[in-house]
Amino acid sequence: MIFKKALTLAALILGFCKPLYAESPSMKVSEFGGILYVENASVNELEELFKKYKYSRYQALDNDAYPAIFTRTMPGDFTQIRSQNKRNELFIRILAPLALKINEEIANERNTLLRLERRFSQNGSLSNAEQKKLEGLAVKYDYFTRLKGSERTDNQLKNLKMRIDSIPPSILIAAAAMESNWGTSRIAMQANSLYKEKVWFTNEGLEPLENKDDGYRFKIFPSLLDSMRSFARTFNSNINYQSIWMARKGFADRHGAIIGESIAYALSTSSNLPNFAGILDYTTAYYNLVSIDIGHLKRGFDKNEH
Fold first, then answer.
1. Long-range contact set of residues 81-86: C-beta below 8 Å, sequence gap at least 24
2. pLDDT higher than 80, residue 25
3. Region of poorest pLDDT, from 23-27, 180-184, 232-236
4. CA-CA distances (angstroms) from residue 195 to 182, 183, 187?
5. pLDDT tier at 82 (50, 70, 90 boundaries)?
6. Model-level pTM?
7. Cβ proximity of 181 and 279 under 8 Å
8. Cα dist from 30 to 35, 36, 37, 58, 257, whole Å
């Protein structure tokens, strides 16, 4: 009888001492092009992976490098993290490599545009292949002109140069934090949507809990990176962001680099959230996100480590 009671007491104690996070044995890690792609990770598993590659907090490694670890979705038990500060810091660590990757992609397109600009300046025209490439960028960044010939090319180059430029990672991360409630929103967890992007008059997408008759759903993305990429494209193509492009160009002309603090207040009309610009600026400063703005991705991992 005493032994039976002891077992019962032990079972009760163990029942109250459950681990803080649920372990997931289904995590998958693959490497391609020097990038680690992580799927189905629990919080503990992701923390251990970051620890393995010395990615502590959201500080860079040596020489402002961040490990190229791309987490496809938020951990399934992310909302169970009890400490808000710990949850926010993990959110930043997840998004920092993604934001740097987005800016690599933008930089590559800008370099292509600058090469076309130099060719046009030297020759007064572009080859058919070069013009086709320019037209593709114009379509992607939603720039339209009725001009023809060299006037058209000159006009496209000038306007696309204003649009295709870096977006400070601190802005991408802070805006995602504001729009997704630091990654804990239903939309972020179920649709990989960091910015509440909508699709209209379709049955595809995540149905809103309220305003179901307003004709929209939240777009579902294959990954967090795809959501951020979509937002960056909107940021650099939607004419409503023109004042931000101007602020970005002005700061770059004066200082040679673009950081989040330089354009935070230009974002005052970019969200329906109250005092969005002020909170955005506060968030970048409080978490020192500007340090990520000068960072870059470190590709390549020791095969013996995983």
1. 81/20, 81/21, 81/43, 82/20, 84/182
2. no
3. 23-27
4. 11, 10, 9
5. very high
6. 0.86
7. no
8. 8, 6, 5, 22, 34
